[in-house]
Design goal:
Elements lengths: L3 H8 L2 H6 L2 H12 L4 H17 L4 E3 L5 E9 L2 E6 L4 H13 L3 E5 L3 H11 L4 E4 L4 H4 L7 E5 L2 H12 L7 E5 L18 E9 L3 H12 L1
Parallel strand pairs: 3-4, 3-6, 4-5, 6-7
Antiparallel strand pairs: 1-2, 2-8
Helix pairs in contact: 3-4, 3-6, 4-5
């Protein structure tokens, strides 16, 4: 079964969501956090605070005179979020990490529809709910930037092999094997798996200054 329609629906809002920036996305997701049970609320707010600390700031890089260089982060695109154990806390952790980093999400599992409704109510438009059985077909679809998955190591290796066998750009695998403690999802480095770095270089030398330098060089 093809899920190309659902993929297009999710991706339609990616650029707008990504362009909001970390702080604006975090503020929207705090509304989603407020609709959850206490343990999920605590996890989400911790993840949002961690994202603000680790990926919100634009870093100014050294460069030659007349050039300004900066380094920022961006989302990768569309992430599948799923949990083999139908662990709602793991699923929520995956979703919020993916979203605050600037991605959009396909949410799989029995809790997916309720969670996506709550995300939409909070102002997150580009999240789509699908049944857990959709995973195998989705792994063959174009347009998937990565998958966040909570499950056994053997399942994760199988998914990773399937991702690696696809043509084109390699999709990112973000794994959690500790379904009880969620040690990866609760790590401050987890957010880094959902981003890509983006550099910008601007010529800051005035046009008149360039003309003057060229004129001097001609003498």
């Amino acid at each position: 079964m093809s899920y190309s329609t659902e993929i297009r629906t999710a991706l339609a809002g990616w650029e707008k969501w990504n362009d909001l920036g970390v702080a604006a996305r975090a503020e929207i997701l705090r509304g989603f956090a407020a609709s959850q049970a206490a343990d999920a609320t605590n996890l989400i707010n911790w993840q949002l605070d961690n994202a603000l600390q680790r990926i919100d700031e634009v870093l100014e890089l050294p460069g030659p005179t007349g050039e300004a260089n900066s380094l920022a982060t961006s989302g990768r695109g569309l992430f599948i979020c799923a949990s083999a154990s139908n662990n709602p806390l793991a699923l929520i952790g995956e979703i919020c990490s993916a979203l605050v980093a600037g991605n959009v999400a396909l949410v799989l599992g029995t809790e997916a529809e309720a969670l996506v409704k709550q995300l939409h109510a909070a102002g997150v438009a580009s999240a789509v709910a699908l049944p857990e059985a959709a995973l195998e077909s989705l792994l063959e679809e174009d347009g998937i930037a990565g998958i966040a998955y909570c499950g056994e190591a053997t399942e994760i290796r199988q998914i990773n092999r399937q991702l690696a066998s696809r043509p084109g750009v390699l999709a990112q695998m973000v794994a959690e094997t500790d379904a009880d403690q969620l040690s990866s999802i609760a790590s401050p480095h987890y957010i880094n798996r959902f981003i890509t770095e983006r550099t910008r270089s601007d010529n800051t030398t005035a046009v008149g200054g360039n003309a003057t330098l060229l004129e001097l060089g001609a003498d």
